Amino acid sequence: MVFSAGLQTVTTLQSATALGKRKAISEDTPLVLRLTSSPELSSYAPTDSECDAGPSSSKIQLKMPILVNGVLMPHTKKRYLCTHAGCDKAYTKPSRLAEHKRSHTGQRPFVCESCSKSYLRETHLHAHARTHLPESARPFVCDKLDCTKRFWTSQHLRNHMDWHNGAKPFTCVEEGCNEAFAKHHQLRAHICSTHAPPGTKPYPCKHEGCTKSFATNQHLRAHVKIHDDKRYTCIHHTCLAQSGGGPTYFATWTALQHHMRTAHLPTCPHPSCNERTFSTQKGLRAHQKLHEEQELEQDIYAVAKGSDNEAEDEPLRKKRRGGEIGRDWKCAVDGCGKDFKSKKALTTHNNVTHLGRRDFVCTHDKCGRSYGYKHLLQRHIARAHAPPTSSSSHSEDSEDSDSPDDTFNIDLITGYSYAKHARAAVASGKMLRCPYPHLPDDLLTVSAVSPQVLEKTVGTSANCGYVFSRAYDLRRHLRATHAIETQKDDVDEWVKDQKGRS
């Protein structure tokens, strides 16, 4: 064999053995092994202690450098190094290196079939699988009298026997203390009770400035994480823009959630809402559901309005408050047929309408009126028990000075008070007068009015004294008082035109 300190090693081997189906190598054919060394070890040469070539020896004993991850390393058995950044671990077998790499990647391929727990190594899975077996399956039994403990490994049994023999391997390291204990937890308890302030627990936090301690190591590991100021990050686009593209860090999950609730409120993306914000995501989801229902309602109404069916003369059904979509809660009382959008609304309807409950009672003296809904009670208090202002009390005194008895008012009985109020409201432009019987052509259609009603309407000369401020009120008045059906769009357009003129 010839060794060169340069860039290659030439080795001549004599072999006459055929391996498998390969062709046997003749005795005269030399074998050449070429190894490219690293730059820092290119001048490596064997020392006298590494090379012992006696005249009678037929072999040359060399401690050659080993190729580890592409680099020649002298005098090492751990030739398989971890290539992860910042990790200097090395192993003697590729399988051990593969197991170690899973600690960096987080892969846990070994899963327990009984409880679905996963592990990095197969040996860990085997050790865990023993916990599902009965204690009688443990092969190593303590032979001491009155001791029936069993163990999975001989090492655990030896430790147990040392305890029987009185061994105390855990000694206190505090200066001047010679106490020793058989169990580690006994040593920790001793240190807490003797060499630590009162109330200290076995696992203290070693972070600078932190005086907390914990009963278990698991609690300590969970606590140590709060000392990491960059544990949680906010990746909202507004935070990234303010901080110049870098994330905003928070030490605790609570701090991050508080930041999200205060700095990034849930916002409705719908154009009609003008970036309306909500305190919770639940409120935003409920609000967005209303947008979806409104869009669906508009589509249904457009289809119904533009459809050519036999009932073209019939007016379109009035839009219900809240729409028709989502009314899944129906009243089960016979003959009712009402439906609601929530279970709470259905329950309230059943209590008020069918059970007659009146839970909202006026608390004013000598009143005692009760209502089924809160808004009715609030309206009653505002109208009946509102404190009078100075201007209103003065006008009431001046108007009622001639009539000592307020319970009898001839103007109210004859309708003169309403007519007086109506004339003042129409003159000020706040209200409009009912156009009956001189209905404009835009409102009066032959298809909506029977011939008898049309003849009566055209031949009537008495003007209607009803006044109104909303198109909705006029439509209801014409239907209830004059038996005239009108189209909503026509009435809205007419009222808008009349208000524009006034």
Automatic annotation (TrEMBL):
Organism: Crucibulum laeve
Gene3D superfamilies per the UniProt record, alphabetical: Classic Zinc Finger
The organism's taxonomic lineage, starting at the top: Eukaryota, Fungi, Dikarya, Basidiomycota, Agaricomycotina
UniProt protein name: Transcription factor iiia
SMART domains: ZnF_C2H2
Keyword set, alphabetical order: Metal-binding, Nucleus, Repeat, Transcription, Transcription regulation, Zinc, Zinc-finger
GO terms assigned for molecular function: DNA-binding transcription factor activity, RNA polymerase II-specific; RNA polymerase II cis-regulatory region sequence-specific DNA binding; zinc ion binding
Coiled-coil annotated residue ranges, if any: none
Stretches the record annotates as Disordered: 384-404
Keyword Cytoplasm: no
Compartment list: Nucleus
Keyword Nucleotide-binding: no
Skewed-composition ranges (Low complexity): 384-393
One term under GO cellular component: nucleus
Domain C2H2-type span(s) in chain numbering: 80-109, 110-137, 140-169, 170-200, 203-232, 329-359, 360-390
